Amino acid sequence: MKVLVTGGAGFIASWCRRELIARGHQVLVMDHQDRRQQLADGEEFFLGDVRDATAVTEAAAHVDGIIHLAAVLGTQETINNPKPSAETNILGSLNVFEAAAQYNLSCVYAGVGNHAFRTIGTGCYTITKSAAEDLTRMYNLYRDGGRITTVRPVNAYGPGQSIAQPYGTSKVRKILPALTCRALTGADIEVYGDGTQVSDCVYVEDVARAFVTALEHTAVNGPTEKPVEVGPLESRTVNDIARLVAEYAAKVTGREPVGIKHLPMRPGEVPNAVVSSDTSTLAQIGMTAADFVPLEDGIRRTVDYYAQSWLPGWLEGAEVSV
């Protein structure tokens, strides 16, 4: 199968591409930034934006299936500037679904793990991604060629995830890079709220396996009855995750574990929130969360990655600036 991966230069997309190639598929990477220098064997590049219906239709004409990951991310960021997320996450997704229906392609759409928050107040990211998920149901029910499975991962983490300011250039804060970079540099970890909220994390390699498996399933059997929710069997609080990061970072650096500092919650964050998964839905595609990378092992791999690939450059820059 030749598979179009939208948002193909992104974090989850890069792992999906590896998984597709490992399973013998070909990949057409679509991204609005020219990243063709990052291509591996078995991959081609298509420069385009999902907001451009013509570009999406042209890319879809050359593939057998689509994994749709292109999106504008961020909770707080999309509250202050909602239009880009609406344009990309709703209209861009509509372009993808329309092209998939036109060519009768199997498609997997990346939903959000906190989809339920749309009823109690959250950022435009969740609102727009959930609206696009509503469109998948419409296509599956009423449109010829509608063959879309929704996969809802909770917080994906692992090697290669972008780092937000002040430790990196990303404008969107992700939980594991944010905690890890502070712990590795000896700064107290910052947790928004009291840390008792549940915000489940799932290792990105398992997320990629779920996306590719869902696409293969959809190609043969059609879309799943329910969205496929991807997360761990056991939920943990944000405080639990922060402590694990602090403890393993201390082993890596040889220092005492850093502390945990609690900050006021930000707009779009829900006190006492529970972001978790109904992992029984994985059975629809023949998977089980029992096979997923345990949180302790995933955090070890992630901290090791940033300690080796990011920390030396950060320390060198800090020495130069002194």
TrEMBL record:
| InterPro entries, alphabetized | Epimerase_deHydtase, NAD(P)-bd_dom_sf
One Pfam family of this chain: Epimerase
Q: Which domain of life is it from?
A: Bacteria
The protein's matches in SUPFAM superfamilies, at most eight in alphabetical order, are given as: NAD(P)-binding Rossmann-fold domains
Domain named NAD-dependent epimerase/dehydratase is located at 3-220
Q: Which family does it belong to?
A: Belongs to the NAD(P)-dependent epimerase/dehydratase family.
Q: Which PANTHER family match?
A: DTDP-D-GLUCOSE 4,6-DEHYDRATASE-RELATED (PTHR43000)
The name on file for this protein is NAD-dependent epimerase/dehydratase family protein
* Species for this entry: Streptomyces antibioticus
